[in-house]
Amino acid sequence: MSDSSVLDLIKLRRGCTYCSVRQLCLPGGIGAEELQRLDDIVQRRKPIARGDRLFRIGDPLNAVYVARDGAFKSVSISEDGEEQVLGFHLAGELIGLDALGSGQHRCEGVALTAATVCEIPYDELSRVAGQIPSLQQQLFRVIGQSVDRDQDHLGILVRRQANERIALFLHSLGERYRNVGQSDSQFQLPMSREDIARFLGLALETVSRGFTRLQDDGVIAVTGRRVEIVNAAELLRLAHGAESSAGDGKQKRA
């Protein structure tokens, strides 16, 4: 391999790391030429303002997206205009996979923060993936991760207790931050408490009380939207339906 090929590969890998497309373009076995083919179809978009839409309900599946920075939510709109949050997308996660089945988007992709994204035309991605087996395998893996998140959401909604839903949400969010190369114990919530409430199927006041209780019990520390997981084992225990041992202690002492 020539020096120029090595430098090109390093340059491409650095670019993918910065734009968070590493889920697709950095699987094992992809070489410089194959990586260049993928890089050639990625379209860089201008910055997106908070509240802007990547796609709307009924739009055809023209592309999938990866946020280089910032975060998004997927929402559906009820007949009376009420918004239901279906999922959140962090930097480094594919957005727009809801349209894979029908070819049309079943929800809207809304920017939670100012963001920049890479747009990947779906037809071209499918063509290139069909020619590069390692890329195709990685694409299937990423799609599977998206399905897993949908299942996790359903798992949250069937839990009866609000504290279980909140604890499981924070635990799962930490795992997702770890998967995209960030800290799983200290992270910024890009979504509002209201968004969290709509995602968890809870009242806003219930979510606020839940965060306060977790902080009072020493499970998390919250400053604005900054969350630190102080006691990961206790958070996981709560996510599986156990009452906080710290909270139980307080009740016993009362």
Give a verbal description of the structure.
With 254 residues, this protein is of the alpha+beta class. It has 10 helices and 11 strands. It has helices at 3-19, 22-25, 32-41, 122-131, 133-157, 162-179, 193-200, 204-216, 232-239, 245-253; strands spanning 43-44, 53-55, 63-69, 72-77, 83-89, 94-95, 108-111, 116-121, 186-188, 220-223, 226-229. The chain has a 4-stranded antiparallel beta sheet. A 4-stranded antiparallel beta sheet has the order 2-7-4-5. A 3-stranded antiparallel beta sheet has the order 9-11-10. A hairpin with a 5-residue loop joins strand 4 (72-77) and strand 5. Helix 1 packs across helix 3 (32-41) and helix 7 packs across helix 8 (204-216). The longest helix has 25 residues, at 133-157. It is globular and about 55 Å long. The model is unreliable at 1-15, 17-21 and 246-254 (pLDDT under 50). This is CRP-like protein Clp. InterPro entries: cNMP-bd_dom, cNMP-bd_dom_sf, Env_Response_Regulators, HTH_CRP, RmlC-like_jellyroll, Tscrpt_reg_HTH_Crp-type_CS, WH-like_DNA-bd_sf, WH_DNA-bd_sf.
What CATH architecture label of the largest domain applies? Sandwich
Q: Any idea what the radius of gyration is?
A: 20 Å
Could you say which structural class the secondary elements and strand pairing correspond to? alpha+beta
Could you tell me the strand content as a percent range?
15-25%
Query: Which fold name is given in CATH as the topology of the largest domain?
Result: Jelly Rolls
Q: What's the CATH class of the largest domain, please?
A: Mainly Beta
Distance between the termini: 71 Å
Number of strands: 11
Number of domains: 2
Query: What is the global morphology?
Result: globular
Low-confidence stretches: 1-15, 17-21, 246-254
CATH superfamily of the largest domain: Jelly Rolls
Strand order of the largest sheet: 1-8-3-6
Mean pLDDT: 79
